[in-house]
């Protein structure tokens, strides 16, 4: 097996391209967008994924671009600050975990691979035949030994090879939307959060950002939105947040002019198998844990490393699934659990959360509280032992 096609040039796709190239495969990446996609919110790289980034030689570059967040402050509906906590605790980060903007990480991974990998932008797979012949919307048919679906939670490759998304999607009862807004609150590496019953608004500005990001989450029955209709998505967001207090009306006004809206249901993908015939899935396409898990990027990075390593050393897709499955299961379990603290279900629960946050600095046993917030994430983030997969270029260097 030599010639591999990857669909999707986000975190999973570019990271898989990197590792496949290092193992000596010939790699083509097809991405539907016209260029590498910027945007998205801050993502965490934790535990095993940090070791993967280190093995890619990217750790210093990632740290240099970390968000540098300092503090998260909670506000009530009238704009009164009610509690604050340090940003690492707010993000559930421990040890040397790093937070970085999704777009910055994607750009780093793309730069690392662009010279050795063929990138085809503005195209999409339309069919995959049993003999490996792949047809595209624009390119002529080409033959590949393997197709890697790294095209996200709404994967096109998964639909072609495994069937409709509804068979694998598990909706967690909530929506998320995020976009760039002017930093009218003057936030400096700080986050402002307004939790209300059934909906939460959040604004932050990171070290590199002169603007801010507004993030909204809300409980809802499935909205059946059109993934490509941004005007409809803005309308649905405005309706969901209608009547909310704090800075929400001004933020919604800013959202109207935003050009980078991310809008999706909080949904996980659960599959019994991630490979069939000549197709294998990596990242959100195969095992989306949802933004509520805080582990989507780490899963994509570790998945890319293990998939490429097993393909190179003979374990193949069977061994990829065997090594990765417990790690995916542990991290997907974080999603529903975390979500309860992100979108609060009742007035009593909201009162309880704010009271606990307010009292936290004065309560004895802060360590126990930290363990309760960050402990489960840290354990899940480390729930895989990374094998050493000697890369082709390293083997060649040893032989010389
Ligand atoms: C622009 C953007 C913004 C995001 N913002 C957030 C966020 O704010 N919060 C959050 O939790 N997660 C966000 N995500 C998702 C997050 O990046 C992933 O959960 C995680 O990093 C795992 O990445 P992935 O590579 O598996 O999937 P994704 O990051 O979703 O990447 C999938 C890639 O496949 C491409 N693609 C889709 N369909 C096709 C097709 N038919 N043919 C070719 N390519 C295709 C997409 O354009 C994208 O580049 C965002 C993703 C993107 C692309």
From TrEMBL:
Gene3D superfamilies: D-Amino Acid Oxidase, subunit A, domain 2 (3.30.9.10), FAD/NAD(P)-binding domain (3.50.50.60). Residues 4-312 form the FAD-binding domain. The keyword Lyase does not apply. The keyword Transit peptide does not apply. SUPFAM superfamilies: FAD/NAD(P)-binding domain. GO terms for molecular function: monooxygenase activity. Keywords: Monooxygenase, Oxidoreductase. It comes from the Bacteria. This is FAD-dependent monooxygenase. It comes from Nonomuraea antimicrobica. The lineage of its organism: Bacteria, Bacillati, Actinomycetota, Actinomycetes, Streptosporangiales.
């Amino acid at each position: 097996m030599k010639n591999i096609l990857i669909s999707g040039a986000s975190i999973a796709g570019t990271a898989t391209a990197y590792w496949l190239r290092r193992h000596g495969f010939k790699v083509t990446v097809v991405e539907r967008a016209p260029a590498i996609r910027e945007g998205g919110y801050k993502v965490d790289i934790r535990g095993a994924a940090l070791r993967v980034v280190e093995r890619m030689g990217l750790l210093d570059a990632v740290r240099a671009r970390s968000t540098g967040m300092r503090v998260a402050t909670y506000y009530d509906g009238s704009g009164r600050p009610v509690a604050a906590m340090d940003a690492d605790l707010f993000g559930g980060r421990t040890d040397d975990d790093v937070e970085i903007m999704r777009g910055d990480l994607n750009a780093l991974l793309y730069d690392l691979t662009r010279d050795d990998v063929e990138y085809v932008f503005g195209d999409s797979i339309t069919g995959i035949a049993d003999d490996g012949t792949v047809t595209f919307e624009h390119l002529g048919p080409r033959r590949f030994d393997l197709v890697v679906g790294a095209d996200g939670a709404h994967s096109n490759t998964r639909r072609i090879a495994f069937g409709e998304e509804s068979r694998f999607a598990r909706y967690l009862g909530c929506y998320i939307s995020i976009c760039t807004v002017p930093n009218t609150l003057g936030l400096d590496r700080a986050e402002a959060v307004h939790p209300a019953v059934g909906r939460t608004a959040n604004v932050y500005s990171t070290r590199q950002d002169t603007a801010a990001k507004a993030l909204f989450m809300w409980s809802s029955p499935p909205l059946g939105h059109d993934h490509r209709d941004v005007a409809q998505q803005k309308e649905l967001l405005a309706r969901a947040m209608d009547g909310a207090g704090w800075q929400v009306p001004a933020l919604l006004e800013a959202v109207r002019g935003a050009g980078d809206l991310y809008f999706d249901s909080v949904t996980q993908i659960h599959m019994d198998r991630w490979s069939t015939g000549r197709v294998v899935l990596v990242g959100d396409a195969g095992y989306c844990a949802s933004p509520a898990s805080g582990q989507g990027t780490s899963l994509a990075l570790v998945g890319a490393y293990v998939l490429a390593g097993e393909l190179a050393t003979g374990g193949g897709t069977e061994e990829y699934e065997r090594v990765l499955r417990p790690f995916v299961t542990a991290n997907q379990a974080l999603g529903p659990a975390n979500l309860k603290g992100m979108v609060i279900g009742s007035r009593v629960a909201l009162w309880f959360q704010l009271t606990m946050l307010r009292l936290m600095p004065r309560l004895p046993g802060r360590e126990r509280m930290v363990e309760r917030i960050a402990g489960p994430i840290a354990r899940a983030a480390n729930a895989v032992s990374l094998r050493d997969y000697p890369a082709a270029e390293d083997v060649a260097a040893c032989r010389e």
